[in-house]
Each structure stands twice: as C-alpha cells, then as structure tokens.
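pinned: reference chain
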Amino acid sequence: MALDRHAPEWLQDATKFKTHAHIFNPVWVIRTLRRYEGPPHRLLDPLYQAVEEAAKEAGSGFGRPRGAGRFELAYLAFVFSRHPDVRPWWQTAGRSIWRSSGFKERPSYALCQRRFAELEHPAVIAAMEQVASTLIQLAVSRAQGDAVQRRSRPAGKRRADDADGSRRTAPGRRDTRA
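pinned: its structure tokens
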C-alpha cells in the first residue's frame, strides 16, 4: 500500500533537526506518538491492529495474553538508533525506551528478536507508513495554524503583556526586558 502523494508543502526550518537534537531522540518519538494514541486522533490504532493480525498469521497471536508493552514502539527506537543488528541495540537500550513503550522491564533478547521479526510483515509496514503520514499531517496543520496566529497578531503587540509593561514568560515569572 503506497502513501497518498500530495503536492509538497514548504515549512520553514522543518528539516533543521540539529537545532533540536537534544529532544529529537527515540524516547521523544515514542512519547509523541503515545500522546496521540487516544481519542480524538487514535493515531496508533492502525498499527496495533496490523501487529495483532501479523501475530496471528505468524502463529504467535494465540495462547496466553501478551504482557504489557508495545514492541512496535520499541522497534521505532531501534530504527532511530541506526544499529545494524538488534542485539547491540537491545544491550544498550535504556530503561526509558522500554518504559516509554509500556514495559515494566526489558524483555529477553529472544522475545525481542521474535517480536521484531513479526513487525516485518507487509501489513505492519503499511500501517507504520500510515501512522507516519498522519503524524506529519498533524504537524503540518499545527504549524500552519501557528503561522496564521502569528500573522493575525497586531505588529508590535507582545503575546502576554501585563499592565506594567512586563511580559509573563512562565507561570509566576516575569520578563522585564524591554
């Protein structure tokens, strides 16, 4: 299943990841996806359904229920790591990756390898592409909304001016710069 192709859109600084490298990491990606997991977006539903179907086709979707944790989210962390093999990544993956993916503790290497192999199913790949496309569309619509808000603000007006001319920068703090 190919992604719908739309005319390209230009977003200023959209590819300047180095300026935000401190937050653009596997844990950030997992947490961002999970933020849109529930209503109204249900971003990850197609991926979760595809993983269940792939597990049943592989013969591992039957039997006792799987434990908590989403291997598909941990798999994204593996992809972002640029490790060529699962074992070195599994050995170095921190607790934050596993916790962000819903695990209480790091699963065994054998289980991780088996579940990652299930994720190579064509339906799972298509669902991952769909999730990525939807996430990009959400980001574009938000960026366009922010741009409209910036343009609609009167020139020279500060965002949250107080009567004394200072500007609130965070709850309870004031920026007294001119």
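why pinned: Residues 122-152 form the longest helix (31 residues). The radius of gyration is 21 Å.
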